């Protein structure tokens, strides 16, 4: 237990902190599972691209995704810039995987 938690003692604040952290842990677990499913799909897209001589990145598709995600974020009161950065972070990793799959296929 951290110093701050010790200081909170057996209080309502500590109980609330624990409950919130329990929800955060559940959400983090859901995020990991959702990302794992997304990467399963993108790996398959990578194989499709490599076998059909398509480039690893598709900037036109990314532009549409970013616009859509920014709107969704805005509607959900999430910072659209953060949502865009988050998507770009994931997409960069996906493209890296696609490049590796293409190289493996000898493209
Ligand atoms: C998955 C794809 O490949 C890349 C990765 C994307 C993604 O992770 O959403 C989107 C576009 C592409 O740059 C795709 O073309 O659909």
TrEMBL record:
InterPro entries: Chorismate_II_sf (IPR036263), Chorismate_mutase-related (IPR051331), CM_bact (IPR010951), CM_dom_sf (IPR036979), CM_II_prokaryot (IPR002701). SMART domains: CM_2 (SM00830). Keywords: Isomerase. The keyword Isomerase applies. Its EC number is 5.4.99.5. This is chorismate mutase. Residues 11-102 form the Chorismate mutase domain. It holds the Pfam family CM_2. NCBIfam families: CM_mono_cladeE, PRK09239.1. One of its GO terms (molecular function) is chorismate mutase activity. PROSITE patterns: CHORISMATE_MUT_2. The keyword Acyltransferase does not apply. It is an enzyme of class 5 (isomerase). It comes from Roseibium sediminicola. It comes from the Bacteria.
